[in-house]
Amino acid sequence: MADIIVPIKQVPDMERVKFDTETGRVDRSSASGEINPFDLNALETAVQLKEKLGGTVTTISMGPPQAESSVRDSLSRGADRGILLAGKEFAGADTWATSYTLASAIKKLGKFDIIVCGEKTVDGDTGQVGPEIGEWLGIPHIAYVSRVREASSDGITVVCEMESDRYIIASPMPVLITVTKDINSPRLPSFADKMKARKAQIETWGAADLAGVADSANFGLKGSPTKLKKVVVPSEEGRKGEVFRDSPDESAKKVADALQKLGLLGSAK
């Protein structure tokens, strides 16, 4: 039996989301939200471990009230319990404050064997939160896990890939791992599972609920040591082209001249 925890994050549709360059924040209200794709791999890993070892899977997400939909989605995909950390005190958190808050919630839960995190989030791409949670909890953590080789009540053995190297690492429990997208293909929820998740109870915890295990000075924007100076959204340029309608010889000359200007033909002699 294993108590497995999966921190998940609701991320906006990155194709449609807008950025507030004045405040340096993502305008999450500008696009619909979904579970971070890497967290789906983490959730699938957790469910597979539960199927092998027995036990429960609990998902924890920190976000605005609308993030409840992602927590509910996690229940349809095999989680047994869902918790949402919501409140203005948590807003504006960097990775340090986010990992502290999530670790505090895990401390409040009290018992855990394995924490499974996605490698990174598509809206942040830092890969920091998972290992930081492990540090806050004082437990071993293994990053870039692409395969679980063995798992038992005593410990876990995984394959992790970093650049061109591959490592086999064993750890006792409790342990935190962050998984890559190569570890599995997340299952799709059935209609019955979706309907069951719609009726499930989602627990919502605020700052007051973590008072016994956390210092609220470390929550949200005020607890974030990272200060963003400037946000620049690069413009997207489409493909450029030119049509030559001259004679074949003249068009060929113009094409050659254009390629030469791009440095693709070398210098003329």
Layout of strands and helices, then pairs:
Elements: E1 2-8, E2 10-12, E3 18-20, E4 25-27, E5 33-35, H1 37-53, E6 55-62, H2 68-76, E7 81-85, H3 95-109, E8 114-118, H4 129-137, E9 141-151, E10 155-162, E11 165-172, E12 175-179, H5 191-199, E13 203-205, H6 248-261
Parallel strand pairs: 1-6, 1-8, 6-7, 7-13, 8-12, 9-12
Antiparallel strand pairs: 2-5, 3-4, 9-10, 10-11
Which structural class fits the helix and strand makeup? alpha/beta
Task: Give the number of DSSP strands.
Answer: 13
For CATH, the homologous superfamily of the largest domain is named as HUPs
The main sheet orders its strands as 11-10-9-12-8-1-6-7-13
CATH architecture classification of the largest domain: 3-Layer(aba) Sandwich
Instruction: Compute the separation of the termini in Å.
Output: 76 Å
Report the total helices: 6
CATH class of the largest domain: Alpha Beta
Can you tell me the CATH topology of the largest domain? Rossmann fold
Give the proportion of residues in helices. Answer: 25-40%
- Helices and strands, in order, run as EEEEEHEHEHEHEEEEHEH
Number of domains: 2
Percentage of β-strand residues: 25-35%
Question: If you compute it from the alpha carbons, what radius of gyration comes out, rounded to the nearest whole angstrom?
Answer: 24 Å
Silhouette:
globular
User: Average pLDDT value?
Assistant: 91
The biggest beta sheet, please? Answer: 9 strands, mixed
